[in-house]
Amino acid sequence: NCWSVMHRKFSSAPCEAYFPRNATMEWHPHTPSCDICHTPRRGLKRKGREPNVQLSKKLKTVLDRARQARQRKKRAQARTSSKEVMKQIANCSKIHLSTKLLAVDFPAHFVKSISCQICEHILADPVETNCKHVFCRICILRCLKVMGSYCPSCRYPCFPTDLESPVKSFLSILNSLMVKCPAQECNEEVSLEKYNHHVASHKDSKETFVHINKGGRPRQHLLSLTRRAQKHRLRELKLQVKAFADKEEGGDVKSVCLTLFLLALRAR
């Protein structure tokens, strides 16, 4: 290294003081205080010097942690964006109750366990996947149709035929939750199981018409039900059609029914 430095320095005029032509050069052991290779403008690294192993390990650890933090940030951003997309696909803000209507201030972990992992509303007609994640039936079916056949939470393969009802103990806890009536003049607190019956008393209020399925077994076809169950189902359907007619068609129920009949004919 010192020889290379001297050649670059004195390429035009060889230095006789450092390297005499007619005499033997006496080489001394190299020291850190060398005046040749430690000059401020032309310093060179000595190859014989061993690197600091501990310092390189610490630097590698710091770089690995920074890379892992960047990867975690990217994954979190991807999850956030996909969650917003799934909320737009579900589009259930008008039919599912928000967790803000809970009458009791429950811990965050409990609220998360009773809310859908797609729309983050209170579970309505809950279903469970093979990977033990719980969603609203409408939300998971819409996401499976648009996003693909996998669980939105863990990306485990999931198909509509794999969806099952949760255990009865979970459904009983869910139906016993007390919620606040969203009507402006009503401050009553009712259980989730009796919410539909309470909402039916607010016929003129549009804010309270939020359809909640109590969960349990999958909904059966109307013709396979008993006469009493058919009457109850038709009453619910009549309330929904009337509320939609009051909101969109100026109260004309007949035009809404004709539109539904036309849609049914087109869908065969």
UniProtKB/TrEMBL annotation:
Q: Is Zinc-finger there in the keyword field?
A: yes
Cofactor binding: number and manner: Binds 1 divalent metal cation per subunit. Mg(2+) or Mn(2+).
Domain RAG1-type: from-to ranges: 177-206
The primary site where this protein sits is nucleus
Q: Name one GO cellular component term.
A: nucleoplasm
- Residue spans making up a coiled coil are 52-79
Return any one Pfam family short name. Answer: zf-RAG1
Reaction catalysed by this chain? S-ubiquitinyl-[E2 ubiquitin-conjugating enzyme]-L-cysteine + [acceptor protein]-L-lysine = [E2 ubiquitin-conjugating enzyme]-L-cysteine + N(6)-ubiquitinyl-[acceptor protein]-L-lysine
E.C. code: 2.3.2.27, 3.1.-.-
According to the lineage, what is the superkingdom?
Eukaryota
Q: Which SUPFAM superfamilies match?
A: beta-beta-alpha zinc fingers, RING/U-box
Cofactor(s) in the UniProt record: Mn(2+); Mg(2+)
CDD domains associated with the record = RING-HC_RAG1
The processes (GO biological process) annotated in the record are:
adaptive immune response; chromatin organization; pre-B cell allelic exclusion; T cell differentiation in thymus; V(D)J recombination
Which keywords are on file for this protein? Chromatin regulator, Coiled coil, DNA recombination, DNA-binding, Endonuclease, Hydrolase, Isopeptide bond, Metal-binding, Multifunctional enzyme, Nuclease, Nucleus, Transferase, Ubl conjugation, Ubl conjugation pathway, Zinc, Zinc-finger
Domain (RING-type) ranges: 116-155
**Function summary:** Catalytic component of the RAG complex, a multiprotein complex that mediates the DNA cleavage phase during V(D)J recombination. V(D)J recombination assembles a diverse repertoire of immunoglobulin and T-cell receptor genes in developing B and T-lymphocytes through rearrangement of different V (variable), in some cases D (diversity), and J (joining) gene segments. In the RAG complex, RAG1 mediates the DNA-binding to the conserved recombination signal sequences (RSS) and catalyzes the DNA cleavage activities by introducing a double-strand break between the RSS and the adjacent coding segment.
Domain comment as written in the entry: The NBD (nonamer binding) DNA-binding domain mediates the specific binding to the nonamer RSS motif by forming a tightly interwoven homodimer that binds and synapses 2 nonamer elements, with each NBD making contact with both DNA molecules. Each RSS is composed of well-conserved heptamer (consensus 5'-CACAGTG-3') and nonamer (consensus 5'-ACAAAAACC-3') sequences separated by a spacer of either 12 bp or 23 bp.
Instruction: Give the record's subunit note.
Output: Homodimer. Component of the RAG complex composed of core components RAG1 and RAG2, and associated component HMGB1 or HMGB2. Interacts with DCAF1, leading to recruitment of the CUL4A-RBX1-DDB1-DCAF1/VPRBP complex to ubiquitinate proteins and limit error-prone repair during V(D)J recombination.
Protein name stated in the entry: V(D)J recombination-activating protein 1
Originating species? Myotis velifer (Mouse-eared bat)
Q: Lineage, please?
A: Eukaryota, Metazoa, Chordata, Craniata, Vertebrata
